[in-house]
Amino acid sequence: MSARLGLAVALFVCVVALLAAAGPFLGGYWLAVVYQTLLAIGLAYGWNVISGYAGYFSFGQITFFGIGAYTTALLTSHTSLDWRLAALAGGALAVAVAAPAGAIMLRLRGPFFSLGMLGLAQTLRVVAASSGITGGGTGLYLSATVTPLAVYEWTLAVAALAFAVTAAIDRSAFGLRLCALREDEQVAGTLGVAVTAAKVRAFLISAAIPGLLGGGYAMYLTLVDPPSAFSTRLELQAIVMTVFGGIGTLWGPLVGGVVMSQISEQLWARFPQAYLMIFGGLLVAFLIIVPRGVVPALASRLGGPRRTRVNGTPAAVAAGGEP
Amino acid sequence: MSAATFAQITLDGLLLGGVYALSALGFTMIFGVMRVVNLAHGSFVVLSALLAAWTYERYHLSPLLVLPAAFALAYALGAAIHRFLLRRLPAEVASQEATSLTLTFGLSYFLAGAGLAVFGGTFRAVPYLTGAFNVGPFAIGQARLLAFGAAALLTGALALFLRATPAGRAIRATSQHAEGAQACGIDVDAVRTSAFALGSGIAAASGCLLSLIYTLNPEMGDVFTLNAFAVVAIGGLGSYAGALAGAAILGLAGSYVAYFANAQIAEAAPYVIFILVLLVLPAGLMGKRAA
How far, in Å, are A82, B70, B90, B186 from residue B46 at the CA level? Predict the structure, then answer.
């Protein structure tokens, strides 16, 4: 381990420990604020692996958040299992569903995959709303035995894990393979990248993170119903944050999450009617104003480490399309 | 179930398919010319249907009279969206396809939110021409027949426009080969703007007709986006003839599911049909896309 990497790991551990230690001293309001931020960051990291690194834009990763939420709610209300174990089981089930779903969905490319995932999320939402086990449209109410602090700690742990996993991917051969298949899947395959294995693995990681977060959210709300478990708002929010921070970058979801979740919370609390409109509009604006995200834009302006990613087709790059 | 009932359901499905076909033509035109999958398509459909329902509630205007206005509004909005948003997407961004897709994804929420602000979240329908013609053993809903007739007329007009007018031929040339079209002196950029505008206008027109059949609220745009996508995916993205066949299949499937299954399963039907279409035909789809 190089000295630089050691320093980075030490810093990461310090920040996480600090946030964990600060939990009990945060009042109800600030605990809620930091919790929402951590949740948003976690979901953004989850989305970023499959959509940012592998280039398979998913409009339905919230599917796995919902699976985690419902699993946890059902397990805690029907058994005496500790809720953290139930939430872990929720993450495991999300991965178990994602394995076949990914194997099938990832055969589709581009908009076919994106819309296929959107269709999957909508299907599960309708199923949850019409099934007796899940409480139908009214959902499941949970007895409030879990403190918000416990949910905060759980979410901090998962968000930290999501960051650490992304950092590992960003430096690894696996990450390079994902970028290669993102730029050109056929060429990557020809060069010996096991394309299917790589993208399914990325998809599983992108399912595990929201799957683990879903259980905490159920406990936090003490309620799971179709709109909260398969939340359009959280899905859109994760995408907007990642696009704002920088798709396919290590720091993008963190920066986007910290900046945007404040705006998001205020908007949601004050103008729930206009929320979707404003966030949809922000997504459009960011794509035009900061298409690569603020993190890469700032890094190149500040003359940071020169690790420019080559974007675009080889022809476009040769024609000088990319700096 | 008697043969007559089955024939009745089949007839209903085909009439519905006619309206789907019109909606899908707008979607496939935009894809053909621009290689943009327009996720805001369903929002145009739903908002225009709600506009028709709202004007009917207030002024008892027939949705057919609202249709030209909705078309014009959506045409202008579509032109503005292309001019000021889609065209501004930086060319060097990694995957143009993913970026334009995400942009229209954001747009669909923007429009849904705008619809909620204007029309509220309540479901609306147009109780217009609720009677039926009795032809032998069949009962043909008047509204459904009217929607089908208008859709067929508009589809015919669109086909004529694309085949027989210079502007229509420019659209087809651009979708066949953009660079070749440019070399022949076609202003490809202007064609793209007009194609996006026209596609949006057609979506709105089909929305007015669907208001005769469906009860809708502003958040149901997804259903019609996925529906249009499934229709054109069956026939191949960018193919007009394929879209007609796809629309008939989807209209029939919707009609059968609504009859044989309960209402809740019917609600999931468009999504399930959509996913099944993608899974059954991925190889065919990919072949079409690569070409």
Answer: 45, 11, 30, 33
For residue B264, the chain A residue with the least C-alpha distance is A130
The residues, any chain, with a CB within 8 Å of residue A229's CB and separated by 6 or more, are A65, A66, A69, A70, A128, A139, A214, A217, A218
Closest Cα in chain B, distance from residue A182 (Å): 9
Is pLDDT of A68 > 80? Answer: yes
Mean pLDDT, residues B175-203: 90
Average pLDDT of the segment spanning A7-23? 85
* Token pair recorded at residue A87: 């939430």
Using a CB-CB cut-off of 8 Å, the residues of chain A touching B99 are 287, 291
**A58 Cβ partners below 8 Å, 6+ apart?**
A47, A50, A51, A113, A114, A117, A206
Q: Which amino acid is at B156?
A: G
DSSP one-letter string for A75-135: HHHHS---HHHHHHHHHHHHHHHHHHHHHHHTTS-HHHHHHHHHHHHHHHHHHHHH-TTTT
Q: Which residue has the tokens 């509220």?
A: B120
Tell me the domain boundaries of chain B. Answer: 3-120+137-280
Dihedral, A228, A233, A238, A244 alpha carbons, nearest 10? -160
* Nearest alpha carbon to residue A279 among B99, B41, B106: B106
Tell me the C-alpha to C-alpha distance, in Å, between residue B273 and each of A278, B219, B248.
32, 20, 13
- Rounded distance, CA A116 to CA B245, Å? 21
Question: What type of residue is B177?
Answer: H
Query: Alpha-carbon distance A39 to A44, whole Å?
Result: 9
Amino acid identity, residue B68?
P
Selected residue with higher pLDDT from B202 and B239: B202
**Res B263 pLDDT > 70:** no
Residue A270: strand pairing partners: none
For residues A117, A122, A126, A128, the Cα torsion angle rounded to the nearest 10 degrees is 60
Q: Which of A108, A276, A292 sits opposite B109 (nearest CB)?
A: A276
- Which among B37, B110, B113 has CB closest to A111? B37
Tens digits of per-residue pLDDT, A16-45? 888 888 888 888 888 888 999 999 999 999
The overall average pLDDT reported for chain B is 84
CB B66 within 8 A of CB B211: no
Q: Right CATH number for B3-120+137-280 from 1.20.58, 1.10.3410, 2.40.360, 1.10.3470?
A: 1.10.3470
Question: What does the buried/exposed string (b/e) look like for A141-157 if buried means 16 or more CB atoms within 10 Å of the residue's CB?
Answer: ebeeebebebbbbbbbb
- Per DSSP, B40 falls in state T
- A-chain residue closest to B233, CA distance: A112
How many other C-beta atoms are found inside a 10 Å radius of the C-beta of residue B148? Answer: 24
Rounded Cα distance between B163 and B145, Å, is 27
Reported pTM:
0.85
